[in-house]
Amino acid sequence: MKAVVYEGPYDIRVEDVDDPAIEQPTDVIVRITSTCICGSDLHMYEGRTDAQAGLVFGHENQGVVEEVGSGVQRVKKGDRVNMPFNIGCGFCFNCERGWTGFCLSVNPGFAGGAYGYVNMGPYRGGQAEYLRVPYADFNCLELPDDEDHEHDFAMLCDIFPTGYHGAELAEVGMGETVAVFGAGPVGLMSAYACLIKGASVVYVIDQIPDRLKMAEDMGCVPIDFSKGDPADQITDMRKGDGVMKSIDAVGYQAIGSGEDGEEEPNVVLEGCIKVTNPTGKIGIPGLYVPSDPGASDPHASQGMFPISFGKLFEKGLSLGTGQTNVKRYNRFLRDLIVAGRVEPSLVVSKEVPLEEAPEAYERFDNREEGYTKVVLKPAA
After folding, report:
1. What mean pLDDT comes out for the span 121-131?
2. What SS3 class is residue 223?
3. Res 17 pLDDT > 80
4. Helices (H) and strands (E) in the chain, counts
């Protein structure tokens, strides 16, 4: 089958790889109909992780079940399904408590597993024509039989639940004010989730015009950080007041507002601490890693960088961090889509055949207009 294969920094190729096969009775094989490029993929693409050549990318996967293992009870051939990016067993201590992003079984020695991602287990990704799904009865979310909402449902693999998770980590409540740092797909979905949860005002911080326009069209207040410190801009708008909640949807590759665009891995966390009112809470769904081969200093290379912890303590702020436990949210968000209450595909800006993945990665990495969220179509 055709698949997107990592060969090295800035070098991915669509190559022929072996078809997946049933390896355990609880597996299914899914024919992929939609698979998305995620901002998290860019960390590997840029050589900013320990990813090795030969890795098949793709953790946002959706399709139709083609083959079923003998131990699968619920999922049937022909079912249309969506897979959370995190793989769970369903029976370990963490999965039983709903912490499926930290499964203790699927990736021995590490809490958590995923498709096509460095250090997340031996699972190939789904930026390919077919995908093996382990523990399928637990990991497959069934979708309506028709093809309505294909792009909406594709957002359930990761960014819609991750955005909602960001709002949950920050404990966003009715009528509250929120600052969301980052208007990439996760940032936009975090802002969308805050609106769903009843936030009164949501400020979205970025410098890419089309992303800020998406945030504005969604009903948020866009803040261009290239025009000055975003926390200062927000407090000026609010006559000296900050916000009650903030969300870091950027992660460790954040950049400062200088013309050189240099990375400042602590700049978003510092912004959250600065703009959040005393007793508020900061949600951090943005990715941070313990090892960054491309970091600019030895501390950042080990996932360590300074933050104003004294100010955080003085203000009595709380932090919520960690990967999304997709299964906590995905069926409820699916049902909101079916009911016509939400439309997460509003962030989708491009649909391309699988063969065009290398170009799409390059353009997405360059933050080119029209490449906010790319859906790859293996069957196109």
Report:
1. 97
2. strand
3. yes
4. 12, 15
Burial class of residue 279 (count of CB atoms within 10 Å of its CB; 0-12, 13-18, 19+): exposed
Tokens of 138: 């637990």
- Answer yes or no: do 59 and 208 share one domain: no
CA 237/CA 278 separation, integer angstroms: 18
Instruction: Name residue 296's amino acid.
Output: S
Q: What is the pLDDT of residue 262?
A: 85
136 and 44 fall within a common domain = yes
Q: What is the token pair recorded at 303?
A: 């996932």
For residue 116, give the nearest of 162, 157, 55 by alpha carbon.
Answer: 55
Same-domain pairing of 14 and 154: yes
Question: Mean pLDDT, to the nearest integer, of 132-156?
Answer: 95
| Pair (171, 256) in one structural domain | yes
Domain count, the chain: 2
Task: Encode 36-65 in three state secondary structure.
Answer: ECCHHHHHHHCCCCCCCCCCECCCCEEEEE
In this structure, the answer to whether residues 131 and 222 fall within a common structural domain is no
> What residues make up the domain containing 109?
2-158+325-377
CA 243 remoteness from chain centre: 24
State both tokens at 3: 């698949």
Which two structure tokens, joined as six digits, stand for 176? 């509250």
Considering the domain architecture, whether residues 45 and 142 belong to the same structural domain is answered as: yes
Query: Based on the domain organization, do 77 and 94 belong to the same domain?
Result: yes
Query: Domain check: are 39 and 175 in the same one?
Result: no
Q: What is the CATH number of the domain that holds 238?
A: 3.40.50.720
Q: Which residues contact 252 (CB under 8 A, 6 or more apart)?
A: 265, 286, 287, 288, 289, 292, 300, 303, 305
Mean pLDDT calculated for residue range 249-273? 89
Q: What is the pLDDT of residue 158?
A: 97
Question: How far apart, in whole angstroms, are the C-alpha atoms of residue 171 and residue 173?
Answer: 6
DSSP state of 143: -
Distance CA 322, CA 302 (A): 17
Q: How far apart are CA 297 and CA 307, in angstroms?
A: 15
